[in-house]
Specification:
It is built from 24 helices and 30 strands. It is an alpha/beta fold. Helix 16 links the parallel strand 17 and strand 18. The two termini are 20 Å apart.
Amino acid sequence: MSAPSPLASARQRPAPGPYFSPLTALLTPRSVAIVGASGTPGKIGAIPVAMLREYGFPGEVFPVNPKAQEISGYRAVPELAAIGAPLDLAIVAIPAAGVLETLETCASLGTRAAVVFSSGFAEIGEDGVVAQAAMADLARRTGMRILGPNTLGVANINAGLVASFCPFFRPRFAAGGAIGLVSQSGAFGGYVANLAQDRGLSFSSWITTGNEVDIDVADGIACLAEDPGTRVILVYMEGARSGPRLIAALERARDAGKPVVVLKVGRTEVGAEAAASHTASLAGSDAVYDAILRQYGAYRARSVAEWFELGYAYAVGRPPKNAKVGLITVSGGVGVMMADEAVSGGLDPAPLGPTAQERIREIVPFAGTRNPVDVTGQMIGDLGRFAEMVEVVLAEHDYGSIICFNAGAGHTDESGFRIQKVWQHVRTHHPDAFIAVSGAVTPPVRRAYEADGCLVFTEPDAAVRTAAAMARSPVAAARGTVPDPMPRMELPEGTLDERTALRLLGEAGLPVPDARAATDPEAAALMAEEIGFPVVVKILSPDILHKSDIGGVALNLRSAEEVRAAAVRVLAAARAHAPDARIEGCLVAPMLDTRNGVETILGVHVDPVFGPVVMFGLGGIFVEVLQDVALRLAPFGLEEAHAMIGEIRGAALLSGARGRPPADVEALAQALSDLSRFAAAHADRLESLDINPFLVRPRGEGAIALDAVLVTRRGDA
């Protein structure tokens, strides 16, 4: 038997648990050595040395180069051992062949962290995987934290640290930035640095994780969550090595009140395969990532523009306190566009009342008064009247957002600062409002707006979309408490028959029918009489999942004679259509009227990254065609279950539609929570679970599982 491939072994290695050691030595080192330092401008080993000088790094810097006396004003040393004292951080900028030996030397000298620029590891194939596994072992053995390999590096602008060869750190970023970035792609991290330069924004910290041999995206999120200089965390990710670590990091950010905005690529099957090959990590199910991010308070952006604008907005402004938006414009047509965008994004452009509209007409007789409020070009010629109209809008409604399109009214410093004074007054008197201005402004005016917490956008629709995204971002606080663990049960192995599946679910607390197993038609008739008519008879076999497709179900049976005849038919149909199937007899259960309720589907999928995930949706075409489902990581309590129910597009059917009574949503939520506890308790044994249909009866009448398919794996799997 051949030995397992090194690549397979590396991928199957268990990921570390949700513990995060501080990254102090990486982000706030007191001393930095650059192995492979160069004095030749443009070389990878030259850039971080020059950056440390340009950014005024206050600690000790040791360029390591046996042929140089001085590099960028720092005294060079011929080798690491010549430094003579333990280092906080080593930057490794040498070919891959010498990296492991260098890292061993670093560790032996007491170095606390290393940044490995070098490529040529897991991204190139099995030989690289072997070398990278040795690097991971070194990190575990020595406790030295390693960023990379194949990373563009790290920066802490407020500490004067730029341990990167990214060219976009020139010109120098200003200290005091509030955006923390964690990117699994170095190239994308560089692209974002360029975007920030163009917008005049800065970072608190900037981390690119590369191949994640040690420090991963979860480490970065957890670290920035505790950084007082970071207001918002932007994350670019392709996959997670450890679901529990990512969740723990998101929880840490949520508890710290730090918004996390994620650009998760790999939404399609092709994209997921590309991401997995690039990061050598499990892509998992994209729908599961979507649900996990929502469940733990992160916002998933759908485009680079949305992602970056949200980072900007959270860093500079304040999120809307509600969905109401006041729209002010110098153009009626643009106002209509803004209103359309607001409604599409879930905002409420609530109209002004008659008194407020009359007051605006008194100020400017030809103004548009409803909402959007069209102040026309009056704002340019008479800022006093413009300020009055803004105050009327703010006084009328408790608007969570105020968005103004001023076109080119602020295109010079003089006019821009005059208008800015109006918004400065608004901010002073309405400190909790989301305020955004769209139009042409000069860089000095933009900086003045942003210093007051007022956002500036070039396009008015971008301003509205950003406000809408912030308003619908997941609630920062956790929803409810996690329920107590459920005691484990003994689960049979393989695909279970329906009777066994229902029995186990019943023991877990879910409502199930009085379903009984009969070995022959006569026993089926006796059981039907005990249950009470009408009944349903189904074939009982772990090998036949779609029973109705082969004539294995008989409905609405109202006598013992009908039950006997039906049992004969379904047994014969099963033997004819599935001669190799294990036939265990018939299942006899009460016949329930599915018209008296709403059919739903409940299920459990065991994700390879995150573990057991509970699925909920409406039955029938809503699942098969519309794919209208909600997902949550197990376990969860009633509040999360209710949020899950309200998330699907067809939720209105449960509230009562077309004259039907409201469904028993409380019973449904309890069942979802109980199912999540069952899934969490048996995560190591579950393969899959479907309860379809799960009938939710009218309010006060409960709910019940009408069919279930449960598949387990071996106990030692």
